[in-house]
Design a protein that fits this description.
Number of strands: 5
Structural class: mainly alpha
Strand content: 5-15%
Radius of gyration: 22 Å
Order of helices and strands: EHEHHEHHHHHEHEHHHHH
């Protein structure tokens, strides 16, 4: 039997960057092409509402992100793609799980402790505070086996396991306990300024950036002060840390040799990085331009109907066990 793998994205922006591709999209493509996995991908529109109180913007972002996933190679024939708010069972299960979750447990969540440390806990909305409970509902609603995450997100999957175990203990075996699926290589990627690519750091390259913008961003990648003649360690260079994900093993070996031989400037390294990254982005942008809103709506409608049936069966089971 195939293992169910669930991943999602929060549509608070209308684009995706290279870090999103490597951390979330590429693994999905790998999984969807394997006989071992059944991939569930959802756009977390309910989660987005905790930050963005503009439903029209959320809907626009939803469509654009689905277009980008498909343009990158996610196949709607192989991967389940759905909108969280199309399936009421997410909210229904969120309420049930909220009723068996204590405040003390929630206050141990990293995001809330960070808010306390910053003195901003009183500004956190109830929706944001309860975000991990909804996330647990998103996962256990479909009896998911694996959740791809970064190293810093393990707590969320552990929380989902804990709450599922508590429900099972109180009302009988109902939910599968999910396990984290961590890609150790992706978790350590460095980006333009030597930190993880993030909207928070403004150090990203969008998948839809034009040629001039990509070149401009690559030119500002931080480097050390070694001269052209000096030998350089590729494993300590931010340019190499980025471009290695977009070249073949043979190209990677040749590039490493240039670093180690000396006489290879950071200017040359940036030009090479631009060449390879732009070659990667071009077909994605071309494919993206061919996908219409109507195509996206059709995919979401078809999968929503199928996922609604699965979710309704589970929420009916839950309601029967708790007596609703």
């Amino acid at each position: 039997m195939k293992k169910k793998v669930l991943t999602g994205i929060k549509p608070t922006a209308d684009q995706l960057h290279l870090g999103n591709y490597l951390g979330a999209i590429k693994p999905m493509i790998d999984y969807q092409n394997s006989w071992e996995y059944e991939i569930y991908f959802f756009v977390a529109t309910m989660h987005a509402f905790t930050q963005l109180h503009d439903w029209e913007a959320i809907r626009r972002n939803l469509k654009n992100l689905v277009k980008l996933y498909i343009a990158c190679g996610v196949d709607p024939e192989k991967t389940v793609i759905y909108n969280q708010t199309d399936i009421a069972a997410h909210a229904q299960l969120h309420w049930v799980l909220s009723c068996i979750t204590t405040m003390g447990f929630m206050e141990r969540m990293h995001a809330y402790k960070d808010s306390l440390a910053k003195g901003t806990a009183n500004e956190v909305s109830v929706g944001t505070f309860c975000y991990p409970i909804l996330q647990a509902a998103d996962i256990v609603l479909y009896d998911v086996d694996l959740v791809p995450i970064g190293k810093d997100q393990k707590q969320h999957v552990e929380f989902s396991r804990d709450i599922a175990q508590k429900f099972n203990r109180l009302f009988g075996e109902t939910f599968v306990l999910p396990a984290p699926l961590v890609d150790e290589n992706v978790a350590t990627i460095l980006w333009l300024d030597g930190r993880k690519m993030s909207k928070s750091y403004n150090n990203f390259i969008w998948l839809l950036d034009d040629e001039k913008t990509v070149l401009k961003k690559i030119k500002i990648i931080s480097t050390d002060t070694k001269s052209v003649e000096e030998v350089k360690n590729p494993d300590e260079d931010t340019i190499y840390a980025i471009v290695k994900h977009f070249i073949s093993p043979e190209e990677d070996n040749a590039l490493r040799q240039k670093y180690l031989a000396g006489g290879f400037s950071y200017k040359e390294a940036k030009e090479y990085a631009f060449e390879k990254i732009w070659a990667f982005l071009t077909p994605i942008q071309q494919k993206y331009a061919t996908i219409s809103d109507e195509q996206v709506e059709k995919v979401l409608k078809e999968w929503a109907e199928k996922m609604w049936a699965i979710a309704q069966k589970k929420i009916t089971e839950v309601y029967q066990k708790i007596g609703f």
